[in-house]
Write a structure and sequence with these properties.
Blueprint lengths: L13 E3 L11 E4 L2 E3 L4 E9 L2 E7 L4 E11 L6 E2 L4 E15 L8 E4 L2 E6 L12 E4 L5 E4 L3
Antiparallel strand pairs: 1-2, 2-8, 3-8, 4-5, 4-7, 5-6, 6-8, 8-10, 9-10, 11-12
């Protein structure tokens, strides 16, 4: 089973919590400089949103986290990351979102490739099921094996 890590290394309070009433906020904002991977996973997408970077990492077959409001990134799409490894540097704070393949009454869909994920309250993140071992043979050829 994978270990799970804090995505920041400080004990500062939450700047802005999940809220689905009034001003909707579908993530959690934490004061941070460096941002770390929650667990072992695969980077699905690295992109830019409103002059900040966004990194999406899949942790198992149903769960992914999106790390937003990054000033710089230290990972690339397709990269296997270890839990606790640095993803990038936040621009004052990191906004992170949890999304699952199950809707669970969520109204906020996120499309990643041909899959639909649904934003969930990050305060309710369960311990994920480990993903299959990933073997990258070329930049365009990714083979999944189910471990040994």
């Amino acid at each position: 089973m994978s270990k799970f890590y804090n995505i920041t290394l400080n004990n500062k309070p939450i700047l802005k919590d999940w809220s689905v009433s009034g001003n909707v906020h579908t993530g959690v904002d934490l004061s941070s400089e460096n941002v770390y991977s929650y667990s072992d996973g695969v980077v699905l997408v690295v992109g830019k949103e409103d002059n900040h970077y966004c990194v999406t990492i899949q942790y198992d077959v149903f769960n992914l986290l999106r790390y937003n409001h990054l000033a710089s990134v230290d990972v690339g799409a397709g990269q296997v990351v270890q839990g606790g490894s640095i993803i990038g540097k936040a621009d004052g704070f990191v906004h992170f979102e949890w999304a699952t393949r199950e809707q669970n009454n969520s109204k906020w869909a996120v499309r990643i490739g041909c899959q639909t994920y649904w934003k969930q309250n990050p305060n309710d993140i369960p311990v994920p099921t480990p993903i299959p071992e990933v073997v990258i043979t070329t930049a365009t050829d990714v083979e999944l094996s189910h471990g040994k």
